[in-house]
């Protein structure tokens, strides 16, 4: 407050002290908000000559505007009027290659903040969209992309795709490609398909998921070539996308060959592939249903081999499974299997099955897929591993019409029971080695269906429940008597494991000696760790190998005759950091025994 202000002259000393404080909260109305008036006043400036400092000329139509408002709404105009461009001083600016109706709609948006999409013709919408992209209005562009995604139709998708391709809008382009995949034959029949650019068409035809008859794809490409003599440089690249081995021999000779667009050598190679190659190697196209189970009656799937066939496709409550009603086949009997025929050829990279395991039965099995029911490709081979419960199986993507499950071994029963089967293409998959998951995080958990099958504890699977605090002399650990028994953890399926972490019971200063062995079948074990005089947290790293069973055997306890283990995880989870943990690492490429003791931070063999 200036000392010369009238308010200052009227103040007493006590008034000055009061003036430096805040006003009391004596009324609910503590803020004046007049945003609506401001909005209406700015809206009132739209096309108004009042205070206008620039006239924009589009297709000979004149628009009064305000440089400040345009610059606030668009980086394009900010650069034009305040960035040193020649238009900065101009009272009139001509905007070339711009549609007047589209610009008028966008100019209205600049002043009102509103733009209605519905009831707008597609061509006008795309003209506005082009200006939005040009002027760098990102939020509006994202909103318009989302609207276009949900407005895709067979008759319009190629036009929208061409726009997305022109502006390099990857997300919208992928939305269009996925839509065209689902309706490939119908989309190819539209006139707009013939107006695609060569580069845009190349991206479509190269997709395994653009699924239509190959002869139809070839014939449509011939029509496109007739319409685009100016893109002759693209012809060869486009013709290379035609999968000639998928076209019948008669059509190759009577339809493809007379066009003289395919070299005779390629046609002969295609005929030779049909004769000599496996069906699975012919490069089939397939439909891709992202994250959607295709083993369902709604998708046209049916069980063609196996007892109690269609029950495999009905979701079930684990507590209400009636084993006798599950889909099954006899174990290790020639030609006995469970086979599902899908409603059409689908691209899949994930299979999930739930093997009935109520009595802890274990199974070895393998899964094959096929296009014709004759030539089979093995995608999962666990015939040497004992597995249980729910199986989450990832593999390299393949086109499949048939899925076949075969059990070659069971630990308990002569029947292989499956309560549920799913197959799909998933967008995210883990790292794999020989189609076996290399987990990043701990899979020895109750949530991942791991079990403690040997060992004594007051609470089943206490070793795997993730609780690493509040354990005491009586609770929170799993144990076995030294000299007899051991602790065994079973994972539901094979994983490539290269590390382990465990917490030894440490409520006092005792130390333990122990060994750790791993196995694929609970029969043949490989020793990977021998711990000596260790306590509390321990972490071990070794050359990764496929693991289902982990057996931990205590050999010494400095306090008594029992080996106690509080927590176990594999692989060692990077999310669970324990600074006191000792670490032992194997640095050789075989499977050495890691000899770990308290003063050792690396391995010896």
TrEMBL record:
* InterPro entries per record: BACK, BTB/POZ_dom, BTB_POZ_domain_cont_9, FA58C, Galactose-bd-like_sf, SKP1/BTB/POZ_sf
Which Gene Ontology cellular component terms are annotated? cytoplasm
Q: Where is the BTB domain?
A: 52-119
What Gene3D superfamilies does the database record attribute to this sequence? 1.25.40.420, Galactose-binding domain-like (2.60.120.260), Potassium Channel Kv1.1, Chain A (3.30.710.10)
GO BP terms in the entry: adult locomotory behavior; circadian behavior; modulation of chemical synaptic transmission
User: Which Pfam family, any one, appears in the UniProt record?
Assistant: BTB
What's this protein's name?
Answer: BTB domain-containing protein
């Amino acid at each position: 407050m200036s000392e010369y202000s009238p308010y200052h002259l009227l103040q007493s000393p006590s008034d000055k002290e009061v003036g430096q404080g805040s006003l009391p909260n004596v009324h609910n109305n503590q803020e004046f908000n007049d945003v609506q008036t401001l909005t209406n006043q700015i809206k009132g400036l739209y096309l108004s000559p009042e205070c206008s400092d620039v006239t924009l000329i589009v297709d000979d139509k004149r628009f009064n505007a305000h440089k400040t408002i345009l610059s606030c709404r668009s980086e394009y105009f900010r650069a034009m009027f305040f960035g040193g461009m020649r238009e900065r001083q101009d009272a009139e600016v001509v905007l070339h290659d711009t549609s007047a109706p589209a610009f008028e709609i966008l100019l209205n948006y600049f002043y009102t903040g509103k733009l209605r999409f519905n009831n707008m013709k597609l061509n006008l919408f795309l003209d506005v969209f082009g200006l939005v992209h040009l002027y760098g209005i990102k939020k509006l562009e994202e909103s318009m992309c989302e609207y276009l995604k949900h407005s895709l139709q067979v008759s319009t998708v190629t036009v929208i795709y061409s726009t997305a391709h022109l502006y390099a809008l990857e997300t919208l382009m992928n939305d269009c490609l996925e839509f065209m995949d689902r309706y490939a034959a119908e989309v190819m029949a539209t006139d707009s398909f013939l107006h695609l650019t060569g580069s845009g068409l190349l991206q479509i035809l190269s997709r395994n998921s653009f699924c239509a008859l190959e002869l139809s794809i070839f014939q449509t490409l011939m029509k496109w070539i007739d319409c685009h003599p100016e893109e002759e440089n693209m012809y060869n690249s486009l013709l290379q996308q035609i999968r000639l081995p998928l076209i019948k021999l008669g059509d190759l000779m009577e339809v493809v060959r007379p066009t003289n667009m395919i070299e005779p050598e390629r046609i002969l190679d295609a005929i030779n592939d049909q004769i000599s190659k496996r069906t699975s190697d012919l490069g089939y196209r397939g439909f891709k249903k992202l994250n959607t189970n295709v083993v369902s009656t709604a998708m046209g799937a049916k069980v063609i081999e196996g007892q109690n066939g269609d029950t495999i496709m009905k979701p079930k409550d684990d507590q209400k499974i009636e084993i006798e009603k599950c889909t099954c086949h006899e174990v290790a009997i020639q030609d006995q299997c469970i086979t599902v025929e899908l409603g059409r050829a689908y691209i899949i990279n994930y299979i999930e099955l739930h093997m009935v395991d109520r009595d802890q039965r274990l199974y070895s099995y393998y899964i094959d897929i096929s296009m014709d029911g004759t030539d089979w490709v093995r995608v999962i081979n666990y015939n040497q591993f004992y597995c249980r419960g729910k199986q989450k199986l990832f593999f390299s993507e393949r086109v499949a019409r048939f899925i076949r499950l075969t059990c070659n071994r069971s630990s308990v029963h002569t029947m292989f029971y499956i309560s549920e089967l799913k197959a799909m293409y998933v967008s995210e998959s883990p790292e794999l080695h020989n189609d076996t998951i290399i987990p990043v995080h701990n899979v020895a958990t109750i949530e991942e269906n791991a079990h403690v099958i040997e060992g004594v504890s007051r609470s089943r699977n206490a070793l795997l429940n993730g609780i690493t605090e509040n354990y005491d002399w009586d609770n929170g650990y799993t144990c076995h008597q030294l000299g007899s028994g051991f602790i065994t953890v079973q994972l539901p399926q094979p994983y490539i494991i290269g590390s382990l972490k465990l917490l030894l019971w440490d409520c006092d200063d005792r130390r333990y000696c122990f060994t750790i062995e791993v196995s694929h079948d609970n029969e043949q074990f490989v020793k990977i760790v021998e711990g000596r005089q260790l306590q509390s947290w321990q972490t071990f790293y070794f050359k990764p190998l496929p693991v289902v069973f982990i057996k931990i055997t205590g050999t010494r306890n400095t306090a008594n005759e029992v080996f106690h283990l509080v927590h176990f995880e594999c692989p060692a989870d990077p999310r669970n950091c324990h600074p006191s943990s000792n670490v032992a690492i194997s640095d050789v490429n075989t499977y050495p025994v890691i000899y770990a003791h308290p003063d050792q931070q690396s391995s010896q063999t």
